[in-house]
Amino acid sequence: MKAKTTMKKILCGAVALAAAVSLSACVMAADQPKDFTLRTSSASAAAEYVVANAPAVSSRKVIIKASPAKIRSGPGKTYSVIAKTSKGKSFTYLGSKKDKKGNVWYKIQYTSSKTGWIISLLGRLTNPAATAKTTAKTTAATTTTTTTTATNATSAAESSSPVTSTTTRQNVGVSSVASTTATATSASKTTATTTAAAKTKNIIISGNPVNIRSGAGKNYAKIGSTSKGKKFKLLDTKKDSSGTVWYKIQYTSSQTGWVMGTLAYIEGQAPKSTTKKSSGKVAYLTFDDGPSVNTMKILDILDRYNVKATFFVIYHGGMTKQYKAIVSRGHTLALHSYTHDYSKIYKSEKAYFADLKKIHDYVEDVTGVDSRIIRFPGGSSNTVSNKYNKGIMKTLKKSVAKKGYYYHDWNVDSTDAAGRNRKASLLLKNVKSGTGKKKVINVLMHDTGKSKMTTVEALPSIIEYLKKQGYSFEAITEDSTLIQHGR
Ligand code: ZN
């Protein structure tokens, strides 16, 4: 591709890793729709709210997980913002409702005389004192623990570290990843045992703190948190796509939830101190610049192999179905940028964050996902940005972390961005040579439609090859190993 400085939109992938490849990785966004209207109409959003639950209301608190968090006059994005609150604040919980998009909202006592609503993604609901057999005192203690241990608890993948703990987070390496998937081998045995006698079994929490989620996987929303030694009735067990076991528990008298099997054990069955380790090899498949006409095909292939992946998306009009499908089919919807226009986003720090906020809010509007996982257009090591603001990447790498974002580069490049429809066999070859003996790989691919048909074509062979090499596939979460250039 020629370097066209005047082009409005540039869709780039592995730009500038090597100077030689530099602009060859860019393609014109020929299929980029013209419509940039942001908020698709959500007029009748107030129509059908489902009343969820409300017993034991007064004993429960909602603890705010991120700053700033908006408090609204009703359970939905269409309601007005009546106030903003910040991380760590605690409010009395009054009930919850689901909006039409399936997002749960908590009703809170905002002031002594006012109530408000907050999206559940931004609040942690505590146990009701009655069911947890613990007094308000222990609830308070749990809260403190969560806050103070947050920064060093990253090795326990399911620790409730707040999103803003990023600044202290380091490249955690392979061992922690291995530990999260380690007990996969004991899975079949566990499943057999519990399905037989699920009604009478309890599980004991062995990690501290441990997240309780709405489903059997790390992609499901956190609905609460518990601590070491707590006991819950076991209702079911399930394995997620990476082979990790999850326990379904009776969380409160009215609510069920899921905890990761590595952080709990069945009562009467001593926790395995020496769990057999898996290979510990993890592959993160990543798709940039979508969604596109290829997204559904990619999702079908991933389903066929029962593999989860990560999509670093930009704004494309008329693609709400695709954004939603990425989420509903269990993958990670992560942020790339709104415009992907280097000349705009890398002009200044302010311009970068304005663009990032735009895609963040768009994605949240469409799917309800409040994503903190990002990839810089061109990667964090791109040098193209120097053209617009020398040294800006150094600044941005620090400031995104301060704002609670986790940025991921890649260490295996399929090179599908280096031209239009490069041969599928070449893409596979490049993945093979890039993978080598690496323990954790982040594989760069693109989901940009007609010019990347061969990426779709190559995907099954890439997955099959990596499976044969012993990799387990994971979608990127806030707990994932950070593959970052120059580190
Ligand atoms: Zn890109």
Describe what you observe in this structure.
This protein has four domains: 31-55 and 131-185, no CATH class; 61-125, Roll (SH3 type barrels); 196-266, Roll (SH3 type barrels), CATH 2.30.30; 282-473, Glycoside hydrolase/deacetylase (TIM Barrel, Alpha-Beta Barrel). It is 24% helix and 23% strand. The chain contains eleven helices and 25 strands. Strands 3, 4, 7, 8, 9 and 10 form a six-stranded antiparallel β-sheet that branches. Strands 18, 19, 20, 23, 24 and 25 form a six-stranded parallel β-sheet that branches. A five-stranded antiparallel β-sheet has the order 16-15-14-11-17. Strand 23 (412-413), helix 10 (424-435) and strand 24 form a beta-alpha-beta unit. The chain is globular. Bound molecules: zinc ion (ZN). The site of zinc ion has 8 residues, from strand 1. Residues 11-13, 288-289, 336, 340, 377 line the site of zinc ion.
List the helices and strands and how they pair.
Layout: E1 10-12, E2 26-28, E3 50-51, E4 61-64, E5 69-72, E6 81-85, E7 90-98, E8 104-109, E9 115-119, E10 123-125, H1 129-132, H2 136-149, H3 174-181, H4 187-197, E11 202-205, E12 210-213, E13 222-226, E14 231-239, E15 245-250, E16 256-260, E17 264-266, E18 282-288, H5 295-304, E19 310-313, H6 320-328, E20 332-335, H7 342-345, H8 349-367, E21 373-374, H9 392-402, E22 406-407, E23 412-413, H10 424-435, E24 440-446, H11 453-468, E25 472-473
Parallel strand pairs: 18-19, 18-24, 18-25, 19-20, 21-22, 23-24
Antiparallel strand pairs: 1-2, 3-7, 4-7, 4-10, 5-6, 7-8, 8-9, 11-14, 11-17, 12-13, 14-15, 15-16
